[in-house]
């Protein structure tokens, strides 16, 4: 009975129960000694949130049962140190207790290898709070940064004149980056094994967290780290939300760095790539807005592939609102040069042709894209017409009125002769729209519209550059084109008249049918015998 009373059952984190000798465990652990006294004769002790869980407590038990001896290595130093702090294994209870042994081992951190430091930091992610509060991270992280500094082209600034309670000693307050820093440093891949909490702690130790991030090399590392993290993301919305919460601080820090470096640190394509990476892990509305402003300012350097960002399920194949925001930023910029404006005009025309087949794309959204640029952004509206033609063909259920509304974004005077011919022949375009286009084209050829526009007709350049040097072939070609347009215009006018005549005939026939049916019904009623 006495033997049983000398033992205590310790239940760890609700997972496993250890049956241990009270006297042996109380000899090394101040926390267990006090708990056993408070429990009186109760032989069961519950311990929650023990660092390292069951495996950690098993190591502590072995240390106690082995007369305070255990092999300490970089792979178990973190769990032993945090467990010793948690169980109050100090010198007051036993000389050379576990706290002293682990602190002595940590004093040789400077001589650890790069791999040893990573292993020790990696093990801290399972009991991060304890590792942080115990000061273990404040010992490991500066050593990690010093290893990077000694083998890289930048130096850590030390010391600080006003250290804070959360800063390591010596304090790491920033990084000086040389212009020759590589796109991907040697340590980028190695640090991707660390959890977001530890990376966040590293950045805070450097004083570059959030809007304090002024380091190009750190910003590039964060983007690399977030890219790796996004590729590992799996599961449903619940798991994704959890991941986004863990990485929120890192994504915002990365974006702050990108915005600060701006065009000097990242190309236009690089900015789009950054946006894709950080969006996959969640991004605050403020940071997204800042990044979109930066991208919108260099929109003329973008390509069609850059704009083709996937949309939300059920809304559309592509995120059209994103492109509209970029165009708005570009157009609202200060004194946008006409050359840049026309580059964006050509880009948006390509984008419209790409999104037109999307069955979920509404007419209002299509028009918003087409009308997002001023009229002078396009020398020719042929691209807009092609996009309309694709849209109408891909949406065969559109009504007559909807097709007319869709064409309101066209500037008929800026349609080429070939585009105008195609429009006039197209059965998908309402006849009245075709007539308007042909009238505008005829007015342009006759000189009622300025002939200086390069897109007015194939002959505009010849007319404006050397009006007195037109040869007979050019005049003949011009006359043929003019005559062909007149014929097309007459055909369209006859087409409209024929359609109106058909409508009137159908209306008269319907009236006659209704009248005849009424007369027939009345006659039948009169001829029907009455039933008594």
Task: Explain what you see.
This protein is mostly helical and 532 residues long. It has a domain at 7-109: Potassium Channel Kv1.1, Chain A (2-Layer Sandwich), CATH 3.30.710.10. 59% of the residues lie in helices and 4% in strands. It contains 25 helices and five strands. It has helices at 2-5, 22-28, 30-39, 53-65, 77-86, 98-106, 114-123, 128-133, 136-150, 188-191, 196-206, 216-232, 237-261, 268-280, 285-296, 304-307, 320-331, 338-355, 363-370, 382-394, 400-406, 417-425, 431-446, 460-465, 472-527, and strands spanning 7-12, 16-21, 44-47, 155-156, 175-176. It has a three-stranded mixed beta sheet with strand order 2-1-3. Strands 4-5 form a two-stranded antiparallel ribbon. A hairpin with a 3-residue loop joins strand 1 and strand 2. Helix 5 (77-86) runs antiparallel to helix 6 (98-106) and helix 18 packs parallel to helix 20. The termini are far apart. The model is unreliable at 156-181, 448-470 and 526-532 (pLDDT under 50). Residues 185-444 form the NPH3 domain. Pfam families: NPH3. InterPro entries: NPH3/RPT2-like, NPH3_dom. This is BTB/POZ domain-containing protein. Keywords: Coiled coil, Ubl conjugation pathway.
């Amino acid at each position: 009975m006495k033997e049983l009373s000398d033992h205590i059952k310790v239940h760890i984190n609700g997972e496993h129960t250890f049956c241990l000798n009270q006297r042996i465990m109380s000899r090394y652990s101040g926390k267990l000694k006090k708990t056993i006294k408070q429990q009186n004769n109760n032989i069961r002790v519950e311990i929650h949130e023990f660092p390292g869980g069951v495996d950690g407590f098993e190591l502590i038990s072995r240390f106690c049962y082995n007369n305070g001896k255990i092999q300490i290595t970089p792979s178990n130093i973190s769990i032993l140190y945090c467990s010793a702090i948690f169980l109050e294994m100090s010198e007051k209870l036993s000389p050379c207790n576990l706290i002293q042994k682990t602190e002595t081992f940590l004093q040789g951190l400077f001589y650890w290898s790069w791999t040893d430091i990573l292993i020790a930091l990696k093990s801290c992610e399972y009991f991060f709070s304890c590792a942080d509060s115990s000061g273990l991270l404040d010992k490991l992280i500066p050593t990690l940064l010093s290893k990077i500094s000694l083998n890289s082209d930048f130096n850590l600034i030390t010391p600080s004149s006003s250290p804070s309670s959360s800063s390591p000693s010596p304090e790491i307050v920033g990084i000086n980056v040389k212009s020759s820093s590589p796109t991907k440093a040697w340590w980028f891949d190695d640090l991707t094994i660390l959890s977001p909490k530890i990376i966040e702690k590293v950045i805070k130790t450097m004083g570059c967290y959030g809007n304090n991030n002024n380091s190009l090399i750190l910003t590039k590392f964060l983007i690399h780290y977030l890219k790796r993290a996004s590729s590992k993301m799996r599961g449903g919305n619940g798991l994704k939300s959890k991941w986004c919460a863990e990485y929120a601080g890192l994504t915002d820090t990365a974006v702050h760095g990108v915005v600060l470096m701006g065009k000097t640190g990242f190309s236009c394509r690089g900015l789009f790539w950054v946006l894709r990476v950080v969006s996959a892990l969640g991004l605050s509305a403020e940071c997204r807005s800042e990044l979109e402003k930066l991208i919108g300012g260099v929109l003329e350097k973008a390509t069609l592939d850059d704009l083709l960002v996937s949309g939300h399920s059920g809304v559309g194949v592509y995120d059209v609102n994103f492109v509209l925001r970029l165009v708005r930023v570009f157009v609202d910029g200060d004194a946008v040069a006409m050359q840049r404006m026309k580059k964006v005009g050509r880009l948006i025309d390509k984008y419209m042709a790409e999104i037109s087949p999307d069955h979920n794309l509404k007419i209002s959204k299509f028009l918003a894209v087409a009308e997002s640029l001023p009229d002078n952004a396009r020398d020719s509206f042929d691209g807009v017409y092609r996009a309309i033609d694709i849209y109408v063909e891909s949406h065969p259920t559109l009504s007559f009125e909807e097709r007319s509304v869709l064409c309101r974004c066209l500037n008929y005077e800026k349609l080429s002769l070939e585009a105008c011919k195609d429009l006039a022949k197209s059965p998908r375009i309402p006849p009245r729209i075709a007539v308007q286009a042909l009238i505008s084209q005829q007015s342009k050829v006759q000189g009622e519209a300025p002939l200086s526009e390069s897109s007015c007709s194939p002959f505009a350049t010849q007319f404006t550059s050397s009006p007195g040097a037109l040869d007979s072939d050019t005049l003949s070609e011009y006359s043929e084109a003019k005559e062909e347009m007149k014929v097309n215009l007459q055909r369209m006018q006859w087409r409209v008249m024929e359609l109106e005549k058909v409508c009137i005939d159908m209306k008269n026939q319907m009236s006659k049918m209704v009248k005849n049916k009424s007369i027939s019904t009345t006659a039948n009623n009169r001829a029907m015998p009455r039933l008594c």
